[in-house]
Amino acid sequence: MRSRRESGGPHAVKVRFDRELLEAAYLAAGPSDDPDRDDLYEIRNDRERDEAFGAHHARWFRKAGFEAALLGAFAEWPRIGASCEEAVLRRVRNPADEFAELFRDPEGLARVGVGLRASRLTDGSFLPFLRHEFCHLDDMFDPAFGYPSEIPRDASPSGQIRRERYRLLWDLRVDARLSRRFPECPNFARALEQHRRDFDRAFSFMEASEREALYLQASGDPPPTHARLWEVAGDPRHLRERAFGEAPGAACPLCGFSTFHWAALDLREAVAPAVQSEFPNWRPEHGCCARCAEVYEAMRTAAIPATVLLPARG
After folding, report:
1. Total structural domains in the chain?
2. Same domain flag for 17 and 134
3. Are 190 and 213 in the same domain?
4. Model pTM?
5. Does the residue 209 lie in any domain?
6. Which domain holds residue 183?
7. Do 30 and 87 lie in a common domain?
């Protein structure tokens, strides 16, 4: 099922709805008694019967108002419509599989893919979900945000921690904007409460006043750029030049994990050259967990980067 929505200018984005999504929505919310649909089972040709069912579900989908509601969700983000050639909405079955992603073909044409559970259409939760996802996509098209064509890949534990922090900071930026734009929707205020808890854990090694200032910056208006979020996610320690302290349960500044076993100062000084080859801003007085110190001590003369041996999250 294809639709075309004007995006406020000469360009129009084609929106295509997957047949499985239409059928799942019909089965979840359609009429319990539908003689017209029952008659379609009499069609003997398999292909013709499938096409007839698809057309029937599409007519119902449009009449039920779902097509207009989904096109309206796109209309809230004209930059997406002006920048994309096509958008495809398809059905997924599990919450973990839901997504909205940007794809570019070899010619550079942008397309949006959306995976949506049919239950979101019947319970109305599709709109907050799409607003959150589309706000991310809108950022990617916004020159002021400065989203790069490619983000460097780093499979090391420190690289994974950086991506997790970046994802949190970007979600915080997005939901803060949405809470200001759509104050009548409680979903974004609830999301901000969860982001705040996650933020305090992720940046627990910072003093409360510094952490508060960083939170206000990430959630503020004007919102921070991609470069700023990536910088903070990669090495927030460079924001200050002082010892981190070795509070029980605080996060190790190297691996990011909470620890109750901090390395002794003499060991930190011994491994400092090896650590600084990968964390240039680190100093022995910043502290590190005993596990990181042991790994760097063992790897001082090895060719394999020590971060390869650091523990992986989860």
Report:
1. 3
2. yes
3. yes
4. 0.73
5. yes
6. 157-239
7. yes
How far is residue 232 from each of residues 168, 196, 220, 309, measured CA to CA in Å?
Answer: 11, 16, 15, 24
Helices (H), the chain: 19-29, 35-39, 46-63, 66-75, 78-83, 118-123, 126-141, 157-181, 186-202, 208-219, 226-234, 265-276, 290-298
Q: Is residue 311 part of a domain?
A: no
- Helix (H) or strand (E) segment spanning residue 89: strand 86-91
Listed in sequence order, the DSSP H helices in 117-185 are 118-123, 126-141, 157-181
Residue 314 lies in a domain: no
Beta carbons within 10 angstroms of residue 59's beta carbon: 14
**Tokens 């958008």 belong to residue:** 87
- Cβ–Cβ contacts within 10 Å for residue 20, how many? 15
User: By the 8 A CB rule, do 126 and 134 touch?
Assistant: no
Same domain, 130 and 233: no
Query: Could you tell me if 257 and 292 lie in one domain?
Result: yes
Per-residue pLDDT of the chain (314 residues; tens, 9 = 90+): 665 443 344 446 789 999 999 999 999 999 989 999 999 999 999 999 999 999 999 999 999 999 999 999 999 999 999 999 999 999 999 999 999 999 988 777 899 999 999 999 999 999 999 999 999 999 999 999 999 988 777 777 778 888 999 999 999 999 999 999 999 999 999 999 999 999 999 888 788 888 898 999 999 999 999 999 998 888 655 543 333 456 666 778 888 777 788 899 899 999 998 888 878 878 888 888 898 898 888 876 555 555 444 555 44
Q: Residue 118 corresponds to which tokens in the numbers above? A: 């049919």
Distance CA(138)–CA(147), nearest Å, equals 10
Count other Cβ atoms within 10 Å, centred on residue 129.
18
Q: Does residue 148 lie in a domain region?
A: no
